[in-house]
Amino acid sequence: MTTSAKNGVAVIIGLVLVGCGDDGSGPSRPPNVRGTYDATYSFESTSTGGTTSGTCPGSLSITSQWGQSFSGDFAIQPSDCRPASGAFTGTVQPDGALTIGDLFEEWINDEAGTGLTCTGHAGQNLTGAFSGDQLTAESGTVPLTCDDTDYQVEVQVTATRLPQ
Description:
This protein has 164 residues and is of the alpha+beta class. The chain contains 2 helices and 10 strands. The chain has a single domain (35-161), classed as Lipocalin, CATH 2.40.128.
């Protein structure tokens, strides 16, 4: 075999080896979050009148997922809480970090339907994580004014995906 033929074979082998290598640094896919969840919604509201908190049972259903984006519906069942329901959207990263939008706004708007007039940052996103079949997300502290009373509101959802 001539020197140029040896060099050509070496180049081809080198290209094949480079093409076959996988260093694990390629793009990762986000986890599948679709499903129906048994959910617990918690809230704490602080104003000059004191602090109110509660825990409400409910459900969360993620019906669609396209890559990192997902959407679905939530429901808060009547107990010590006023029932509420609505739609939400969100994103989930390959590491399970997630953001849920519209859920907090739907809940606040539904609560405002009790005769209160509320303004504030009701569109605050909830941030959290998804791992296995567990989803948790919280709003952090959100300022809200209802009928001239200022509130600091925190909302959290903890949910477990039900077997399919």
